[in-house]
């Protein structure tokens, strides 16, 4: 699949739309993955998946209750109706990606969508002090 992505006849158009970094990263992946380590990568993937399931089930203790992230919105509405409205709009439009899952990169990222006056939030928490 990666080879097909890199060698697509539409690469120039896709680079214009999504940037060259996507293709550079794919080329690097092809260079660093060796058949000798496939078994270890599979084990790593399985462990990451198990870890993702554990962390995805995490709950947030807030105001004496245990909540998930979608339930926090009600509390934000109580603090400031505009903040709560904004948070719910982000959830409703899937503009926030904070669920830990297999294959998701570690870190956090936020980008603006100026045409819509919105932001997209990406975060992956791994239980370290950097979260």
Q: Termini separation (Å)?
A: 32 Å
Order of helices and strands: HHHHEEHHEEE
Radius of gyration: 19 Å
In percent terms, what proportion of residues is strand?
A: 15-25%
Which structural class is indicated by helix and strand composition? alpha+beta
Alpha plus pi helix count: 6
Unreliable residue runs: none
Q: What form results from the Cα inertia axes?
A: flat
Largest sheet: 3 strands, mixed
> What would the average pLDDT be, to the nearest integer?
76
Helix content: 40-55%
Write the layout of secondary structure elements.
Layout: H1 2-6, H2 11-18, H3 21-32, H4 38-56, E1 60-62, E2 65-67, H5 69-79, H6 81-92, E3 96-97, E4 107-113, E5 118-124
Parallel strand pairs: 3-5
Antiparallel strand pairs: 1-2, 4-5
Describe this structure in words.
With 131 residues, this protein is an alpha+beta fold. The chain has a domain at 60-124. 51% of the residues lie in helices and 17% in strands. It is built from 6 helices and 5 strands; from the N terminus they run ααααββααβββ. A 3-stranded mixed sheet has the order 3-5-4, with no helix packed on it. A two-stranded antiparallel sheet has the order 1-2. A hairpin with a 4-residue loop joins strand 4 and strand 5 (118-124). The longest helix has 19 residues, at 38-56. The protein is flat, with a radius of gyration of 19 Å. It starts with a helix and ends in a 7-residue tail after the last strand.
């Amino acid at each position: 699949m990666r080879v097909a992505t890199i060698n697509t006849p539409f690469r120039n158009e896709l680079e214009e739309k999504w940037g060259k970094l996507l293709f550079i990263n794919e080329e690097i992946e092809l260079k660093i993955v060796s058949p000798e380590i496939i078994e270890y990568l599979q084990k790593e993937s399985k462990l990451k998946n198990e870890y993702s399931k554990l962390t995805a089930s995490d709950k947030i203790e807030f105001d004496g209750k245990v909540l998930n992230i979608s339930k926090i919105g009600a509390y934000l509405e109580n603090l400031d109706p505009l903040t709560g409205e904004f948070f719910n709009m982000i959830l409703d439009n899937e503009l926030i990606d904070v669920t830990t899952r297999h294959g998701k990169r570690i870190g956090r990222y936020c980008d603006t969508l100026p045409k819509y006056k919105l932001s997209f939030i990406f975060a992956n928490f791994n239980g370290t002090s950097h979260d």
